[in-house]
């Protein structure tokens, strides 16, 4: 791996994204969908929809996303190490943790919105279907960014090239 201003910029961006994901997921942990039980309830301060399985998916996904983003930010601190092997490995680890954090943040968001719109089945289904389409695309594109010389990245770049050249041919007709 060649260390340059581009790598430094990529590290800076990933560090900011990790920090942003940690901030968002931390905040989501305190602004729970459905709210909290009031002080007059038998269990004050607990989530109103604590036993809803979709809410439990939200909590687990949110926690995993927060921990992955924090670990990703910490691993990028090691990327400034003077040993190039340690720096490269920590950069790769930070990228993988960012991929996991963004994936679990997407799942947590989907679960929170699903809980909020659960009375409308068509809207709940739409939210879940859109997430099922978006999440793999997001993972593939980010994985191609993390591993730019992988067969996956080559395939995505080829598909992008075909789409762009096909668009040029269509606009030229």
TrEMBL record:
Q: Which Pfam families does the UniProt entry name for this protein?
A: PGG
One GO CC annotation: membrane
Localization in the cell: Membrane
**The organism's place on the tree of life at top rank:** Eukaryota
Instruction: Give the way it sits in the membrane.
Output: Multi-pass membrane protein
Question: Would the keyword Ribosomal protein be found if you checked this record's keyword annotation?
Answer: no
Keyword line? ANK repeat, Membrane, Repeat, Transmembrane, Transmembrane helix
Glycoprotein listed as a keyword: no
What range(s) does the PGG domain occupy? 17-115
Residues passing through the membrane, by range: 54-79, 91-114, 126-147
Supply the name of the protein. Answer: PGG domain-containing protein
